[in-house]
Design goal:
The complex is a heterodimer of chains A (234) and B (302). By secondary structure, chain A is an alpha/beta fold. Chain A contains ten helices and ten strands. A six-stranded mixed β-sheet of chain A has the order 6-7-8-3-9-10, with helices on both faces. The model of chain A has no long low-confidence stretch (mean pLDDT 91). Chain B has eleven helices and four strands. Chain B has one domain (2-293): ABC transporter involved in vitamin B12 uptake, BtuC (Orthogonal Bundle). With 302 residues, chain B is mainly α. Chain B starts with a helix and ends in a 9-residue tail after the last helix. In chain B, the strands form two sheets. Chain B has a two-stranded antiparallel ribbon. The radius of gyration of chain B is 19 Å and the shape is globular. Classes of the chains: A alpha/beta (234), B mainly alpha (302). At the A-B interface, α2 and α3 of A face α6 and α7 of B.
Chain lengths: 234, 302
């Protein structure tokens, strides 16, 4: 059984339908990348899965449990966390305070969870008292991912984690993604840097105009000539 | 003229303390709910009247009499003060449930207009139930004491001290408690707060409670300083409150503290040069200047 299943999702903003029947699956401890041209509905799909948008039609299940239309604060308790593309940190809070906010719904001691995040991102431990607003884009991305990991999710949704990052930092983010997966978390990524993301992915999906166009292992998509020409820059 | 400066600065500290307590709450609700609450001054009035009600009740019952040293009030003020803070906080949370909660997704200007309505209701309920005549906190004449060549009444020292204590408490609350950190997180980015799983409705209730309690404290201290209170107390305070909040940078509670002190000082020091009748004009002048020259405030970002 798949950890996350989204079947035949129709969704969009108000009356404007962006997704016309998209299906994706993510297995336990799997990295899955969704690529596609701008406007294909990649971010809309993530927002729908995370309950920020209500699907007009379709079903979403998490670990065998039907969660279609569940609001975000319920989904985070069920083990699904989400990192938005922009504005994904609290700039006037310190690194540690950002992480603490990630565990807001929990009662009791959160130190072991902080430790785990600091082990994944040693830089954040050194900077834990710094205000996030003064940090670079790559460091903010670490804070955002660390915050989402505080609830010990089984699956993490990442919306374009390398958008607006300098090229030399992109590689760091993908290294972090791999490390997060190795700690036992499944990851669903929407990406513009398709090649690098597919290279670390177990599987991938290509979305075009709100529909599934192609799916396969990361390698299959990278080696597919037609997709290469259309979406991976030849 | 200049030899009066230390004295005027001391008076500025007193009125700045009252303005600061009001301005912090105004800034907190702005930062989290994104609207200028025109009813905030009337929460100050409400607090002042609730405290006055309990003071009269205790006097009627003949309990908690006497005075603290050179202060104009005695043991009765302690429960009256605490009950007024709690009562005003509960009232503000109730008003939020009844009025503003329905407008969470509306445009901010709708909440602003609703708050003007709330202000009229609060003020007129007070006017209707307590009457237009002033109520006296104390009618006794107080002797001033001299400190470093500055002449202040014991009450005024108490006002500065209590405001400082409350400001320190607020700072500790915002810095070290889970709810305080969540309030700052929500001020930064309400959508992200929700996505993170922060119970935003609970944080909003806390914000109203704290803002209103500080407003009530400000109202009571204004009553102690002026000896008397009227239903217009908070409405008249609204202009310096807004001037303080905008001066400090709207939405920043620390800016509101600095802004409140600066407005209080500016109003008092100006009396060395112009008639005291121009005090509101000084606050308004600073407000206009800031909006033209530095709309983000002294400590605001962007």
């Amino acid at each position: 059984m798949r950890l996350l299943e989204a079947r035949d999702i129709h969704s969009g903003y108000g009356d404007m339908e962006v997704l016309h029947g998209v299906s994706v699956e993510v297995g336990k401890e799997e990295i899955v990348t969704i690529i596609g041209p701008n406007g294909a509905g990649k971010s809309t799909l993530l927002k729908t899965i995370f309950g920020l948008l209500r699907p007009h039609k379709g079903e979403i299940s998490l670990d065998g449990r039907e969660v279609t239309g569940f609001p975000p604060h319920v989904l985070v308790r069920l083990g699904m966390c989400y990192v938005p593309q922009v504005d994904n940190v609290f700039p006037s809070l310190t690194v540690q305070e950002n992480l603490e906010m990630g565990a807001f719904v929990l009662r009791g001691d959160i130190k072991p969870r902080l430790e785990r995040v600091y082990e994944l991102f040693p830089l954040l431990r050194r900077r834990r008292r710094q205000r996030v607003g003064k940090m670079s884009g790559g460091e903010r991305q670490m804070v955002a991912m660390g915050r989402a990991l505080m609830l010990d999710p089984t699956i993490l949704l990442l919306d374009e984690p390398t958008a607006a990052l300098a090229p030399n930092l992109v590689e760091n983010v993908f290294q972090s993604v791999k490390a997060i997966r190795d700690s036992g978390v499944a990851i669903l990524i929407v990406e513009q840097n398709a090649k690098q993301s597919l290279a670390i992915s177990d599987r991938g999906y290509v979305l075009v105009d709100g529909r599934n166009r192609f799916q396969g292992t990361g390698r299959e998509i990278l080696e597919n000539e037609e997709i290469g020409k259309l979406f991976l820059g030849g | 003229m200049w030899e009066r400066l230390p004295q005027l600065v001391a008076y500025g500290l007193v009125s700045g303390s009252v303005i600061t307590l009001g301005a912090i709450g105004l800034s907190l609700t702005y930062s989290i709910l994104k609207f200028a609450n025109f009813a905030h001054g009337d929460l100050m009035t409400t607090g002042a009247y609730i405290a006055c009600g309990f003071l009269l009740l205790f006097r009627f019952l003949g309990v908690l009499g006497g005075r603290f040293g050179k202060l104009s009030f005695g043991p009765a003020m302690i429960p009256a003060f605490l009950l007024a803070l709690a009562g005003t906080a509960i009232l503000a949370i109730l008003i939020d449930r009844l009025v503003y909660r329905r407008l969470r997704r509306a445009r901010p200007v709708m909440r602003l207009m609703a708050s003007v309505g709330v202000a009229f209701v609060l003020r007129n309920v007070i006017l209707f139930s307590a009457g237009a005549d002033p109520y006296y906190y104390s009618r006794k004449i107080q002797r001033a004491i001299y400190i470093l060549g500055v002449k202040l009444k014991a009450d005024q020292l108490f006002i500065i001290g209590l405001a400082a204590v409350l400001v320190v408490f607020l700072h500790l609350f915002l810095s070290y408690t889970k709810v305080g950190k969540a309030m700052r997180a929500m001020a930064d980015n309400p959508e992200l707060a929700q996505v993170t799983g922060i119970n935003t409705e609970r944080i909003i209730a806390w914000t109203w409670g704290i803002g209103a309690a500080l407003a009530a404290a400000g109202g009571i201290l204004a009553g102690i300083e002026n000896k008397l209170i009227t239903p217009e107390l908070g409405w008249q305070a609204l202009l310096p409150l807004f001037a303080a909040v905008i001066l400090g940078g709207i939405g920043s509670p620390y800016g509101a503290m600095a802004g409140g002190m600066l407005i209080g000082m500016a109003e008092e020091v100006s009396t060395a040069f112009v008639s005291t009748a121009y005090k509101p004009a000084i606050a308004f002048g600073i407000l206009v200047l800031m909006l033209i020259l530095r709309p983000q405030g002294l400590f605001g970002r962007r």
